Amino acid sequence: RYQAVKTGTGNTQYSGTVTLNTTLSGSTYQLYDTTRGGHKTYSLNNGTSGTGTLMTDSDDVWGTGSGSNTQTAGADAAYGAQETWDFYKNTFGRSGIRNDGVAAYSRVHYSSNYVNAFWDDSCFCMTYGDGSGGTHALTSLDVAGHEMSHGVTSNTAGLEYSDESGGLNEATSDIFGTGVEFYANNSSDVGDYLIGEKIDINGDGSPLRYMDKPSKDGSSADSWYSGVGNLDVHYSSGPANHMFYLLSEGSGTKVINGVTYNSPTSDGVAVTGIGRAAALQIWYKALTSYMTSSTDYAAARTAALNAAAALYGTNSTQYAGVGNAFAGINVGS
Ligand code: ASN
Ligand code: ZN
Ligand code: CA
């Protein structure tokens, strides 16, 4: 039967009040966005398998903004999926994670007090835990964008999730998760080069990761060294996150949306940024045209240079910027 597209209201936990496209079926609204590949948001109701139940509502107002309301995580997840879809479509012309016009689906309320979120290629779905205490779901924009970008990486370069390629896989998710956060231009969850700054995973308000100087988290590497691939992939991502920050914004001190960054270079040579928009285009083209499952840091530099050459030419400031940003993390010179 005919199902109308409706404009619902999401009272999210991290992104304020947002508009969500929903579907009216009979007299019940569904958290089902037919305008973006058919994205559905389900609640696992603390279960750990299957799809649980499609989220439904009687008045098309979802959540209260409080993490203790069961609909709130659904509102944040649906918003994250929507902004991630729009980011890829409008920034790169990519239509969904597989570029086939078909949306993944999202599941919230996975297990109990689960402090993680994950993409799963086998279900082609996104899953979010409720976080510590069950009230800090891992549904912020950068986390949603990070996790769904794992699906994009799987369906393109296929970077193997270990050694240096694993660090590059993780960094790609941080880079595009950050791209999603800036793209959304949300006044509650503003764009920054921090990862997970809204979900309070450390319990002290600090972010999970810092792209300007990854070692600020106490574990990540700022620059490449032989053996960096032996770190956990969430720490060997550091040099690539740092390279992306340098390429976008340059080295030294800079204030963006009220956050102060201070990015060093491994050799002390200052780097000038080329802007985030160009840096995103270069990384996306490198990922989708030049990287393979076994790409390491040296090969990532070549891939990014090839991407910059294809997009802007070898005499461009963007091409020179890639070389300088990689030199700033001790890759090439
Ligand atoms: N949240 C984690 C990540 O995206 C899940 C995992 O262990 N892969 O890296
Ligand atoms: Zn990840
Ligand atoms: Ca962030």
Automatic annotation (TrEMBL):
Belongs to the peptidase M4 family. Residues 7-154 form the Peptidase M4 domain. Residues 157-331 form the Peptidase M4 C-terminal domain. It comes from the Bacteria. It comes from Streptomyces cellostaticus. This is Peptidase M4. The chain holds residues 218 to 550 of 798 of the full protein. The active site is at residues 147, 234.
